[in-house]
Amino acid sequence: MFGPEGPTLRELAVQALSSVERGYDLLAPKFDHTPFRTPDAVLESVAKELAPLGPFEDGLDLCCGTGAGVEVLTGLCRRSVTGVDFSAGMLDVARRRVRPPAGGPGVAWVRGDARALPFAAAFDLVVSFGAFGHFLPSELPGLFARVHATLRPGGRFAFPVLAPPRPTRPGYWALLGFDTVMRVRNALWRPPFVMYYRAFRLGAVLRELGEAGFVTELRALPEFGRRGDGGPRVRLVVARRPQPAAGSVNS
Q1: 3-state SS of the chain: helix, strand, coil percent to 5?
Q2: Peptide bond between residue 191 and the one before it cis (omega within 30 degrees of 0)
Q3: Own/partner pairs, 184-188, CB within 8 angstroms, 24+ separation
Q4: Which helix (H) or strand (E) holds 56?
Q5: Are strands 151-162 and 234-240 parallel, antiparallel or unpaired?
Q6: 74 lies in a domain?
Q7: pLDDT per residue as tens digits for the range 214-224
Q8: How far apart are CA 214 and CA 206, in angstroms?
Q9: pLDDT tier at 46, thresholds 50, 70, 90
Q10: pLDDT of residue 166
Q11: How many whole angstroms separate alpha carbon 28 and alpha carbon 93?
């Protein structure tokens, strides 16, 4: 599953019995050789979909990991790109592997918690790839409120969402089994390791984005085709912080 350069079963077990932060510090040197990294095809499709919405000046990759999303942003933003993650190990790998293109935007790395972003109206574009399983549903309102405050009026918050597998598919039971194991693990072991694949539900996410003040649209990523019911296999959520109405005070 992971290949010869990926983590061993023992290393994965040690990670799973650690905190989320410590677990990713341990996994960081081999993270890009695991299925947990967002596939290049998804990154490229998101970049293609976002490009016509620009130009963007400043971009933020939320929970940037080893920097794959930062590389996407360097092709979309003209002035600066920032990657934020709470794992020092992941940031260390990102600093070494990401090489901004000549003449491209400046790149900065910030260690921080996505739930307490240290920015205010600083970005035109925020992206995130594959990180939302680390947030409990109860944390989404605060997370989305912080992202909203981080964006300038008119700025966008974008992230891909895969359609969940149906109960008739093996993937459905694999994800259900994984989440069940994690819930049992967290009931019996401390510190908790929050990673639930089935807790991030699109309907609830759209509702919370609206409550946070975003205007949201869904865009199908055509490269991944459609399911048997006609729905897209992968969607891009694009949530926009509205411009203030004429004569109003910008909040």
Answers
A1: 40, 20, 35
A2: yes
A3: 185/16, 185/17
A4: strand 56-62
A5: antiparallel
A6: yes
A7: 999 999 999 99
A8: 9
A9: very high
A10: 81
A11: 7
Helix (H) / strand (E) containing 140: helix 140-150
The pLDDT of residue 34 is 87
Any domain includes 249: no
Q: Residue 107 is which amino acid?
A: V
Contact call for residues 227 and 233 (beta carbons, < 8 A) = yes
In one letter, which amino acid is 20?
A: V
234 Cβ contact list (under 8 Å, min separation 6) = 42, 45, 160, 161, 162, 163, 220, 221, 223, 224
To the nearest whole percent, how much of the chain has pLDDT over 70?
Answer: 96
150: three-class secondary structure by DSSP: helix
Residue 30 structure tokens? 């081999």
Range(s) of the domain holding residue 119: 9-240
Q: CATH no. for residue 13?
A: 3.40.50.150
Identify which has the larger pLDDT, 127 or 14: 127
Q: Are 168 and 100 in contact (CB under 8 A)?
A: no
Torsion angle in degrees (nearest 10) through CA of 73, 97, 83, 130:
80
* Maximum separation of any 2 CA atoms in the chain, in Å: 61
What pLDDT digit, counting tens, does each position of 18-39 carry?
Answer: 888 888 888 889 988 888 889 9
CA distance 235 to 218: 6
Residue 33 CA to residue 110 CA, distance in Å, equals 23
3 belongs to a structural domain = no
Q: Could you tell me if residue 251 is inside a domain?
A: no
Please say if the pLDDT value at position 16 is more than 80. Answer: no
Domain count for the chain: 1
Structure tokens of 231?
């729905």
